[in-house]
Target: Integral membrane protein
Amino acid sequence: MTDRSTTLSSASASAAERGRAAALTASFLRGAIAAGLGLGALAVLVMGMWITSPYPDSGARGALHVAAALWLLAHGVELVRPDTMSGAPAPLGVVPLLLLALPVWLTHRAARDALEPEEGRPQLTALGAVATISAGYLLVGGAVVFYVSGGPLTAHPVRAALLLPLVTVLSTAVGAWSGSGRPVGPLPLWLPAGVRERLVRTVWAPPARRRTAVALRAAAAAVLALLGGGALLVGASLVWHGGAAQLSFTQLAGDWSGRFAVLLLGLALVPNAAAWAAAYGLGPGFALGTAATVTPLGITGPPALPSFPLLAAVPQDHGTPLHWAAAGVPVVAGVVVAWFTVRVAAPPFAVREEAWTLRATALTAALGGALGALLTGILAAAAGGPLGNADLAAFGPVGWLTGLAALGWLVGVGVPVALLIRVWRLRERRVKPDPGVSVVPGAGADGPGADGSGADSGGADGGVVAGGGAGRGAWWAPWRRTAAAGVATAGATAGVGAGAAEAGAADTEGVAKDGKAPVVAAAPPVGPDPESYDVLPAAAWHDRETREARWAAIKDASGGLMADFPAVPLLPPVPEPPSGGEDGSGEEVQVVREVQETKPDPETAPDRPDVTP
Model:
């Protein structure tokens, strides 16, 4: 009786706090596990190379140091070789882009999985997931930086402090956004009210956001086109210089384990080679040392060319039409920007009113080209870096110069091509009237057309068959039917109206008597008869004979399934009008009262207990 136990509310609150703490701890562990998985994968690979090598340079500790250094290099951290022949530390800054995909994918997946709802555990917010996963990942990253400090490859401290958190937080944030359903939330409150209002009216409006999404897809497709074209150039050049590539491959390693290591390194550097070739096709080219630059127009200065199979693909000649053909890669990328823009701005067979304006189409294509140029510049800057001191201090394309060249190509080609495709798709199609269009009474949706295809559809009371070439497709797409046939069919069906049913009945009797085909009548003028829309007076609509005729027609249409109910409307009592009906309202009320007072004939009423006459 004297025990002061916690109340139910305090117990539930403490349970919620414990559940939230457990969720944050689990998210922190997810980040640490993601870092451990990436580090372990590289450690297994390096240890396998060390075990199979007949003449290893160091023991297992040195191999583990190399694996940790490669894990840091995969995050963009520049490495330093302290032991060189000259005594000066040499930097190693060329990041294999294929290795970069490993930590990005692991952190992205960890953030996405952390936001999945679990039974019995509170749901984390996106900000909490990003903070905890990044903290767990960076804790392992800091330990790795400290571990490699005494090995053959050390990490540059400033690059490690900047790039390791940047890559981790960005990939985790994208994963959290994807795990939250890719929302487009409200603008942050720390922005000034005037800025938020202007953004809501311009950039944050639904049409502007849709155009931004189209521009992002066009930019991504253009970058993929540039990388694909660059990979194609690299493959063709490797085949052309196959002898030099094979000689370099055999010179680097004499045993199979070493050759396998060189092969894996070459595969990891294939995206870098594709980015270099894309910069070559864009025009600025790439640097082979501080004194040489390779462009389609020529090679300036003596190149510092190390022995490596991928570098054997560097063109030795210059100024030939075969080298100038590399400019086709950015042209194709510009056409891709235009295509991905117009496929939404002006879809095939679109009406001019449904398509975007010229200004909106041009701005969207320009935005897609600008975003694609920005991504291309970032990839070009990440694909290059130093390989040593002196002449090897600069290797690969220059990021800002490649981005400017990509901006000129993508915008200069994408915007005019997008406008031309839009004009072509929205051109006026003048369709001449086809004399073969005729009206067939009683032809439904399943009835065959004049050409026997059965594709022309008719209405419920009558059908229109398009003869000649009205229903044929265009010369470049015969499987597509032009919009002219559909418009003609719809207009003729609307013009036939109710008269087609009577004509169909007369033609059916003619076929039954003499066995001949019905006479095909000419199509009436398109457009309904204005007199068919005259409003019937209330007295004629509620007349007894008219009501019984409608009731009999409904009963005949039911096929005998409808019971023989009397045509008596069940209407609520109508109140007396407030005035004598000078404006015509009293006459309508009198007509409704007469309809209510109408009694059915007792002799025709059904003899059923559930029906009251």
